[in-house]
Prior knowledge:
The chain is α+β, with helices and mostly antiparallel strands. 39% of the residues lie in helices and 13% in strands. It has a 4-stranded antiparallel sheet. A hairpin with a 4-residue loop joins strand 5 (211-216) and strand 6. Mean pLDDT is 88; it is low at 4-15 and 359-370.
Amino acid sequence: MKKVILTLIFSLTLCPLLIGQNTIAKFKYEDAEKAYLEKHYEDCISNLNEAEELLGQTAPKILHLKILAQYQLIKSNPYESYDKLENLRYNCATYLANYDISGLEEKYRDIYNIQKSLSDYPTNKNDFTTKQNEVEEENKKILNILKLEKMVPVEGGTFVMGNKKGRKNEKPEHKVTLDNFYIGKYEVTLSQFSDFVHATGYITTAEQLGYSETYHSSKKKWIKKKGVTWRYDATGKVENLNSNPVINVSYDDALAYCDWLKQKYGGDWRLPTEAEWEYVATGGKNRTKYKYCGSNDVDEVAWSIYNSENNIHPVGQKKPNELGVYDLLGNVYEWCFDMYFDRYYEYGPFINPIGPKAGSGSYTMTKLNTKNINRVLRGKSWNFTIDENDINFRGNFYSINSYNFVGFRVVYKQEDHE
Length: 418
């Protein structure tokens, strides 16, 4: 009888504990799902490990999500660790051997496809180490190129884009998740663009059309300045400061420059997306909520209508922001990759968004001439006022035109290793 009573007491004590552990394990799984959606894969795996520890075993959905997270990490850096690769292979084999269960066919196919893709990587440690060394050498070359081109690493993450108190096209505020990338420390300079033109013989839009667009604020109208090209400053005089940002370049000119870098170095060189630009402007993961990209004093970080003396200035003379990037506000507007759509924030997507396929003004985007369509501009310029919320300000102009207050900076993303 005494033994029965002790067993009953033990059961009554243990049951609430087990129920509590199961509940916490459920919370850990939910946290893991959230981390996965936000591309925080290490956090996802950590939460799943804790859930398994609480349960004393794994479960189909836990192992499935863990494999998905492990695979994302392997894809981003496949030759980081042989042990991590082998652990993923082991988990795939475990799942396929134990969970061929009715109702799990879709998840089973996920794991089958991942296991199949892992055959692209070495299966023994010696071959893996050889490939790992080759990749390390390649990465060293890339880092030297990025240093030469003055590129700043940006750790991806999730941030709130837009401004709920801002202009109509800045609403609604919404969460956006971005991958890692590199961005130009400075706007592309006259010297850099000159190297491109001399290397390729490229003829810019302004040279083809015979003019560039200039806005006269006093007259409140646009003027086509004949003969003005990328070689000229904002006043229409021949430029002699190689460290000034290049202006009087169209969106197409900026793309051509990016294509040249791509051919020269390999990898994905392009204009920043609107989301990437705003993420950098807010400071990325180093954000400290400054009003103006690195300071609460606009004159410390930006050339505007109040201090520019009606012209552009050499890059990097003002303070950088938290990431070490200069002139995000002021000096020159910057072309972004995206086509412009005023209500784009309402539709997404919200993971690595690149803008609508075509559009300007409304969401009726059929039968539009994509060669004469508005592209996003960010950051304002030397001839504009700069306000507290201009990190979120969304400008736009025709992609085929050149302007005396518009330049650009570039982004780089490394291509995946085969």
